[in-house]
Each structure stands twice: as C-alpha cells, then as structure tokens.
Amino acid sequence: MSKIKKIKNYWELGYQIADIVEHTLTLPEPKLILPTGSTPLSLYKELVNRQLDWSSVTTYNLDEYVDNTIQDQSYRYFMVENLFKHINMDEDNIYFPGDTAVWPQMDYGIGVDLCLLGIGGNGHIAFNEPGSSFQSETRIVDLTEETIKDNSRFFPTIDDVPTQAVTMGLKPILSSKKIIIMANGKHKKDILEQAMYGDITEDIPASILQTHTNMEAFYCD
Question: Residues 12, 82, 122, 193: which is the catalytic one?
C-alpha cells in the first residue's frame, strides 16, 4: 500500500524532490513529465539554484488551457518563467499537450523516466477530473465548476478562467517509470490520504496511483 512521506516544511519538500530529479538527470537522455501550480514552485526554485545540466532532457507538461486569453496565466508561460528560462534546456525538447505538432499523435508518458504530479482538491491529477477513465488518453476536457473556482484566483475575474483544457490522460501518466505526487497545505491532506489509502475509484482519479509499482507521495502542512 502506498505510503505518504510527511515533510517538515514547503522548502524541504522542494529540496527532497529536487534530489530525485537531479538523480534522474544523470540518466541518458532523461524524460520528465512536469506539473504547474503553486505546489512545485519550491522544487523549481531549488532546481534552478542547483545549476544542473538539462541539455539532453526532454520534458512534457501535463496540461494547458484551451482558448486562454490571459497569456501570462498559460502553463507554458508559468514554466518558462519559473524553470525553462533559467536552465540550459533545448527548446525543441519542451512539449505541451496542446502543441499541434505532437498532439494527439504523441503517446505522452511512454518511456518517461519520472512523472511529477500535484493533486487537486477533488482528487484530480493534471485535468483528469473525477469520473475520468483510468484508460483515458491525452484529450480536451471540460473543467468542473470547482476547478474553475479554484483557478480563478490567478485571473482578473472568474469569467476569464478558461472552461476547457488539454490534459495528459491517466493511461500515459501511469506508463511513467517512476511517479512522484506532492501536496502542500492542510487542505490537501484529506484528499491525498483518500487517494493513497482509500478505494481505487474513478471518483478520485489520483487513487489509481496506488497500482503503480514505483510511486512515492510527499506531503507538508
């Protein structure tokens, strides 16, 4: 059964996961799946500070909004500002699931060495909302009212929040060789525990991670 590793604070959370990322970067031509949101910010800051070699790395982001008119709230913008512009990544090796050149033909997750995930308040991972099939592929999804409300804090008004996104599916996520899920804040504790210790159900998409043979969960208050 999955175990949740309790970390003493948010910055230590970033530090410990950065150790795992740094080890992954020593592999030949490593491939990573990366998340956005507030939870991985301490991780990205730590990775930038370590000045690691990213020249042979390929990254795939989990999701991106559809028809977003606020460009500085796009997930591509987030990744550039918080990670990509500070490291020696080859821009040709950075992929988002909405890129027309690679989606939907590309099998996201296949051969990926490390997948990093956050968890939503309703148990979603990426934009695989409750009810998503465990066999789901990369696709366009409608965002739930709860997710739109949660994300509205990043936009001028709730009406500016996109109602759709392109998301990596649960099936390619699970094909990753190693998965890390991280949660920050007491408001995420209950849902993380349900996902890691409760029934495996499509009502809590993150619960499928219990079936992965190389998965770790990290939590801090």
Answer: 122
For residue 23, the SS3 value is helix
Catalytic residue among 46, 63, 64, 113: 63
CATH number at residue 125: 3.40.50.1360
Examine the residue annotation and report whether 90 is marked as an active-site residue of this protein: no
**99 counts as catalytic:** no
Using CA atoms, how far residue 35 sits from 43, 93, 112, 145, 159, in Å, is: 11, 16, 14, 21, 24
Set 64, 124, 128, 216: catalytic member: 124
The pLDDT tens digits for 85-124 are 999 999 999 998 876 555 545 555 568 999 999 999 999 9
Domain that holds residue 136: 4-220
pTM (whole model) above 0.90 = yes
CB contact at 8 A, 139 and 167: yes
Known active-site residue 61: no
